[in-house]
Amino acid sequence: MSRALLRGMLLVGGSLAVAAFAYAGCNDLPNSTATYPDGSPDSFNFNFDSGQVDTQLPPDDGAPPPDTGGADSAVADQLAPDAPDAPLACGVVGGACCEAGACAQGGACVGNVCQGCGGGGQACCPGAACAAGNVCVPDAGLCTACGAAGDPCCASNTCGNGGCCFYALCAGSGTVCPNTDGGTCSMGSCGGCGAAGESCCAGNICTGPSTLCQGGQCALCGGGGESCCGDGTCASGFVCAGGSCAACGGATQPCCPGAMCTAPLACGTGGTCR
Length: 274
Prior knowledge:
This protein is of the alpha+beta class. Among the domains are: 93-145, no CATH class; 146-220, no CATH class; 222-274, no CATH class. Helix content is 12%, strand content 21%. It has two helices and 15 strands. The chain has helices at residues 3-27, 71-79; strands spanning 32-35, 41-47, 52-56, 107-110, 113-116, 134-137, 142-145, 164-166, 169-171, 185-186, 189-190, 211-214, 217-220, 238-241, 244-247. The strands form seven sheets. The chain has a three-stranded antiparallel beta sheet, with no helix packed on it. A two-stranded antiparallel sheet has the order 4-5. A hairpin with a 4-residue loop joins strand 6 and strand 7 (142-145). The chain is elongated.
């Protein structure tokens, strides 16, 4: 027998011996077990004779499937149609006007819709009221900037920077007042006429702020208990009632211009804050 053939027989014999040993050892192995993340065991047996795996799965306890973190519901929310917007209550800005054209504070009824009012270019609020620095132009029903030279006079005959109010228009301080004998505007006075305590200028005109010509003299107007100014206005916190300025905005007091009341009061029936 050759040396190469003898070597091959020895190698084959050794492999068979190793395989037989492994077969005998595996048949003696205990059942292997695995544990699921929820703690339930799963056992399995491998039958070396049949080559099959016998498994014993944990019983179904009827528990719901695991939470996916809301991913499915989030997608459903994105696909769901938006709910229709609820109609606006009457009286609020953007909503229909309430009965008799009433709107909440800060709104005016224009075309049966409550719109923001009082600002430059906006509708005049009820009572011809506008925000500070604006005045209501009755013919247009709009608020416009006031007080500067060439602009309309603001409420209560007022012009800014010492200007003078002549025929509802402001003349700048240092300029010649219209319809005077060369008087120069200075701090509301036109060369000795028109300011509070001075004689009225030609045409019974007073040019100073919050002044009204009474008996040839320019008297203060617009304050509590004083006469309403020529345009029927009063200082802030007062309203013209019966030709005099009365406190407004408080409980049981008249509503201020623009149907305004001190929060949380609201302007109620009869123009009274409640």
